[in-house]
Amino acid sequence: MSRPDLESASNQMVRNVPLYRQKRKFTCGPSSLMMVMSRAGRAISAE
């Protein structure tokens, strides 16, 4: 996946989950989102 595809996908995800933005679970932005996703991925793989 190329960088532009990754950014557009993350932007679409942020739009699809406004609740996360309201709760301020993570700040808006591909880098912050990727950090959250990588943590979630590690937690899932650890199980």
Automatic annotation (TrEMBL):
Phylogenetic classification of the source organism: Bacteria, Pseudomonadati, Pseudomonadota, Alphaproteobacteria, Hyphomicrobiales
Protein name stated in the entry: Peptidase C39 family protein
Domain of life: Bacteria
